[in-house]
Amino acid sequence: MSILVLGGAGYIGSHAVYQLIDQNDRVVVVDSLETGHCQAVHPDAAYYQGDIRDKQFLDDVFSKENIDAVLHFSANSLVGESMQEPLKYFSNNVYGTQVLLETMKEHNVNRIVFSSTAATYGEPDAVPITEDMPTKPESTYGETKLTMEKMMKWCAIAYGIKYVSLRYFNVAGARKTGEIGEDHQPETHLIPIVLQTALEQRKALTIFGEDYNTEDGTCIRDYIHVEDLIDAHLLALSYLENGGESEIFNLGSNQGFSVKQIIDTARKVTGRSIPAVPGERRPGDPSVLIASADKAKRILGWEPSRTSIEEIIEDAWNWHRNHPHGYDGGVEA
Ligand SMILES: NC(=O)c1ccc[n+]([C@@H]2O[C@H](COP(=O)([O-])OP(=O)(O)OC[C@H]3O[C@@H](n4cnc5c(N)ncnc54)[C@H](O)[C@@H]3O)[C@@H](O)[C@H]2O)c1
Ligand SMILES: O=c1ccn([C@@H]2O[C@H](COP(=O)(O)OP(=O)(O)O[C@H]3O[C@H](CO)[C@H](O)[C@H](O)[C@H]3O)[C@@H](O)[C@H]2O)c(=O)[nH]1
Fold this sequence. Notes:
This protein has helices spanning 11-22, 55-64, 79-84, 86-106, 140-159, 190-198, 226-241, 259-270, 294-300, 309-322, and strands at 2-6, 26-31, 46-49, 69-72, 111-117, 162-168, 170-172, 205-208, 220-221, 223-225, 247-251, 257-258, 276-279. By secondary structure, it is of the alpha/beta class. The protein has a seven-stranded parallel β-sheet, sandwiched between helices. A two-stranded parallel sheet has the order 7-10. Strands 8-13 form a two-stranded parallel ribbon. Strand 1 (2-6), helix 1 (11-22) and strand 2 (26-31) form a beta-alpha-beta unit. Helix 1 (11-22) crosses helix 7 and helix 4 (86-106) packs parallel to helix 5. It is globular. The structure holds nicotinamide-adenine-dinucleotide and galactose-uridine-5'-diphosphate. The site of galactose-uridine-5'-diphosphate has 19 residues, from helix 6 and strand 8. One of its GO terms (molecular function) is UDP-glucose 4-epimerase activity.
């Protein structure tokens, strides 16, 4: 199998590349490096630097490489930025996907697995969230991902391009063997911010709201280990290869942890004090997001195996401790 990974220099995409190469697939990476890192690209992958909106560039890649299926991770994905610059998000996420689908159609590539998000649901009516619940995104980011899903739906009907859309909840952790991990600039996600505070790169982290209607007053999220998440992508590729119909699946671990529980667990894992101060709510944050991933278990046979929050934070800590300045800072002795 030859798999094209779009966004393979990013956090999640780079983990997909490593796991595909672990199972002896041939991997072609396309990445613009807008937010990714060339050091994150597996040395055995064929790598093309460019933007998926550049039709000529994408055509060249599809012409040179014999692509069987596409894993599509490339996107802009900062919720706050998407509210300030909505057109940037429509261009990269929606128009980029349009160019990709045109290219796939022209080159007769008819299988795609792509990154969607819990942000397609907005504030849920109930948890755990199942795929048939209403989608009411509260950010441009969520709206663009929902639009991508709808584009896929109509392209499946018209052109026979089969898709699996995976709605991720909170992705965290790092590859156990330590070569790659999470390095976002700027970092907005809770667990890396907590660990940067453990490393004293930040004086304290701010807890965004302590007055939510939850047990300790802080928001609850469903954290999923990045390697479990990629296992689901590999199963989704096999599912499509075996003739499976287009589908949407939630990916989470069916359990929620509050912001304070994450900080406390990180204190135990790192043995550091990790100062945290209360702050204002972050606009647009739902109080509780927990996935029902039963459909992915039932249809894809997916069973996450790294579900302990200690293990997720330990693997993230292993990466951050050894790469305190991410990819560009080199490895600390
Ligand atoms: N991190 C999470 O918790 C989370 C949750 C839900 C969904 N997602 C989705 O998962 C995907 C990957 O997220 P991530 O955290 O790895 O992000 P990331 O920013 O680390 O990776 C995205 C990669 O895509 C590349 N890219 C962006 N636009 C491109 C373009 N037009 N052409 C070519 N390459 C381009 C970037 O350079 C980067 O390497 C995204 O689609 C994101 O929306 C992430
Ligand atoms: O410095 C921080 C950072 C985060 N938080 C809190 O920690 C929780 C988790 O926040 P993240 O930013 O790590 O994650 P989100 O739940 O906001 O976002 C995740 O889920 C979204 C869908 O709702 C998108 O898919 C997004 O890409 C994905 O990272 C939230 O309650 C947030 O308010 C803090 O208290 N302080």
